[in-house]
Amino acid sequence: MSKDFILPDIGEGIVECEIVEWLVAEGDTIKEDQPVVDVMTDKALVQIPAKEDGVVSKLYYAKGDIAKVHEPLFAITGTDDEGSDDVARSSTAGEPEPKNDAEPSSNASSNSSVTDFILPDIGEGIVECEIVEWQVKEGDVIEEDQPVVDVMTDKALVQIPAKEHGVVEKLYYAKGDIAKVHEPLFAIRVEGEEGDVARSSTAGQASHKDNAQSSATQSSAANPGQADAPQAARQGKAIASPAVRRRARELDVDISKVPGSGAKGRVMKEDVENYASGATSSSQQSQAQEQSAKPTSTSGGTRTEAIRGVKAAMAKAMTESVSTIPHFTYADEFDLTNVMALQKQLKERYKDEGIRITMMPFFIKALSLALKEFPIMNAQVNADCTEITYFDDHNIGMAVDTKIGLLVPNVKQVQNKSIIDIANEVTRLTQAAREGRVAQEDMKGGTISISNIGVIGGTVATPIINKPEAAIVALGKVQELPRFDAQGNVVARKIMNVSWSGDHRIIDGGTIARFNKRWQEYLEDPTSMLVHMV
């Protein structure tokens, strides 16, 4: 069975390289770690080694061509150089299986096959993700488009669906592991005939180039009580991922001698490290883990966690924003008594139609009307601040506090939407954000943002601009406070503070004050919005 060798990451920020010299030709037999090709990046000459034994069946590039990282470089098929009956069966489907004379030879030429599901691109610039929850387990039958796993990127929670019908043969990662884009996520067995589990299992193990895997599976099937059989029966090459093999080379460990603690004898990273330190027993390893997990004290301890996903992205973005954009803050208070009365009426009017009208659609629509008069607030500057780009579309972002961190989806083309249209979009985006399943398109293209801290508490904030936007506003909580009316009488009014942060390179204090005043007028007299709406 032929499979592609995917060109791995060969340097930070490198996305392509030039083929300098092929060190093998089509039809050549190659060994694991044997140099296959010399490639030139923009930094150095790099030699790419083989990940496993096999025969080169196809070279996808010629000398001088430009190869892309994470795309196929060459194709490799299995060999029988280690004398394994299983590999011979996978490469010569018509030969009878010597280990089971009673089984017809047609069983060895099954239509079933096991292939790796390669983790696809899940967002621009995303190269890895965290496994949040598997929706299936090994042995489950899955259908095309069925959700298989939830993964967390630095932007959102993404659900990966199956591409075809089959049986889950192997999950390559555990919950909490970091999976790489363009690398195998799980293995799926696509059967030609239902019920031929042993035969398709053998094909799956052969497709992973593991000689002893299928014999161990047959032994396990015949004697289910012998849990240690896979490790004892393993011969030849170890079952391990490229990352584990790389770790073994770093520690100068012969991976073929390392007992595997994973399913079906798979060698894990911990197995290699424990073997290098002399702890070869997986039972000793588990005991050590259990002992280390037990707390020895209830005071004075610390806990360290990796900053991942959305939180890591936010940390990077906020640091870059503050360090590159000169912020300044402007604050004012709005009287929302009238617009809140209107919102209450419309909420009752449309609730039977399933439309949820909150205050946010009014803030967004009024902001869009003000942007028409102050286009600089809807503009962005380039990196060296030599050009300003003005946007016709008002793509207004709204920060949503979620269980995975702060997400800022945006309502597109607000200038063309009604209050009802905006309300429906706000509901959709808020629900998606709180579930961590915002589409990448909803996160892109924002031109200005609103952060509603008032739903949690607090009246004034100094928000950080969502770069490359030029401004952001934070809404404080609404308070019923005493104010004087036109006749000098003290009356109760619904008061909210707003706090702006602006990019002082293109927005000055007078501009943001006038813009804010226009936005305030629309909200304090909501009927004035009617004559300006399309």
Can you tell me about this structure?
- By secondary structure, the protein is α+β, with helices and mostly antiparallel strands.
- Helices cover 27% and strands 26% of the residues.
- A hairpin with a 4-residue loop joins strand 4 and strand 5.
- About 15% of the residues have low confidence.
Task: Provide the fold topology.
Blueprint: E1 3-6, E2 16-22, E3 29-30, E4 35-40, E5 45-49, E6 54-59, E7 66-68, E8 72-77, H1 85-91, E9 113-118, E10 128-134, E11 141-142, E12 147-152, E13 157-161, E14 166-171, E15 178-180, E16 184-190, H2 197-207, H3 213-222, H4 229-233, H5 242-250, H6 269-276, H7 282-293, H8 309-324, E17 327-335, H9 337-350, H10 360-373, E18 379-381, E19 388-390, E20 396-402, E21 405-407, E22 410-411, H11 419-434, H12 440-443, E23 448-452, E24 471-475, E25 479-484, E26 490-503, H13 509-524
Parallel strand pairs: 20-23, 23-24
Antiparallel strand pairs: 1-8, 2-4, 2-7, 3-6, 4-5, 6-8, 9-16, 10-12, 10-15, 11-14, 12-13, 14-16, 17-26, 18-19, 20-21, 20-22, 24-26, 25-26
